[in-house]
Amino acid sequence: MEKYNNNSGYEDENDEEYQIPPKWELNGWGDITDNEENELLEYIDDGILVDKSILLIAGPPKKYKSILATQMGIILASENKDWFGHLVDGGCIVLNFQAEENKYTLYKKLKIMEKGITWESNYQDLDTFATNIKLDIMNPTHYSYLRDEIRRLEAEIVIFDPLVKFHTVEDENNNPRMDNVMDEFHRLNEECNCTSIIVHHSSKNIQGGVVSRGASSIFATADTQILVNPVGDRIDLKFDLRHGAHLEPIKLKMNPNTLWLEEITKTSNEVIDFVLDELQTTGANGIMRNELQEKIAEKFKFDIRTASNEIVGYIKSGLIKTDNKKRNMRLFSPKQGIPIAKN
């Protein structure tokens, strides 16, 4: 018999691959459902992050994917914390491979992010970062070193950011080659009893939809996909889950003071309603921008910069109209006629 290929099977019955027997495990219905040990451990519930799984964060470059992964790592290393309303089984040992950072840029980012951590936790003892990385997961020597380091640290969650820095496949659209790469991440999960979070750059964003770069096998092998979709000054997280039901998108905005992504919730809608009421009250006279941001800061206990960022976002989205003056700008309701600015 010939060695196996798509046309004629195996070339030689003595071929090593030919000698490997098939393998499967048989379990009755009750063997599965009556044993609670078969229940999947969920680090983030609703099937978002499951034990020994791969979570893929994909989106256009420079759209907060790394921030999202770092933020997720901090929360997973923390006790008694949720992730945008989803329960977290925290207190995990997290190993974060930041291939596009060095310790100096990471220092600046983490010092700012510390301002957004308002809960008591020993996350700093559990969250470890690796930088200055040269690593090819397909290289047996590299793989062995990586496996041994994860075991040494007893890491439960390992973040790889970004995927392109952890292999040497020239064309990420090559399905067979990238399938082999992703198989190594699954192998790592099994051998190290860990879970992987992988950041992946998509090519671009078109009319509200993410167009993902790379072979379909990258996405097919992931247990969870979080697609980062930029919409104006916010990002929407869209989910594709293997171990959970459909989830509605989560809408987030960056807090520039803390570099934390924050969910746009009812509180944000209350700010919008407050702003529109103020503009309606002032009518044709409008309101000075500085005056409105001070009112927002006082009403919602924001700092002035956050209040200013809220106003900028509303102007960009068309919720607020302006007289187009660069100094002493006045703001108006979108229903109000706008006076022509005089030079």
Give a verbal description of the structure.
The chain is of the alpha/beta class and 343 residues long. It folds into 3 domains: 1-39, no CATH class; 41-263, P-loop containing nucleotide triphosphate hydrolases (Rossmann fold), CATH 3.40.50.300; 266-332, Arc Repressor Mutant, subunit A (Orthogonal Bundle). The chain contains 11 helices and 18 strands. The chain has helices at residues 16-19, 29-33, 65-76, 103-113, 123-126, 140-153, 175-192, 216-220, 266-282, 289-300, 304-317; strands at residues 42-44, 49-50, 54-59, 82-83, 86-87, 94-98, 127-130, 157-161, 195-201, 204-206, 209-211, 224-231, 234-241, 250-255, 260-263, 287-288, 321-322, 330-332. It has a 9-stranded mixed β-sheet, sandwiched between helices. A hairpin with a 4-residue loop joins strand 1 and strand 2 (49-50). Helix 6 (140-153) runs parallel beside helix 7 and helix 10 packs across helix 11. The longest helix is centred in the middle third of the chain and has 18 residues, at 175-192. The protein starts with 15 loop residues before the first helix and ends in an 11-residue tail after the last strand.
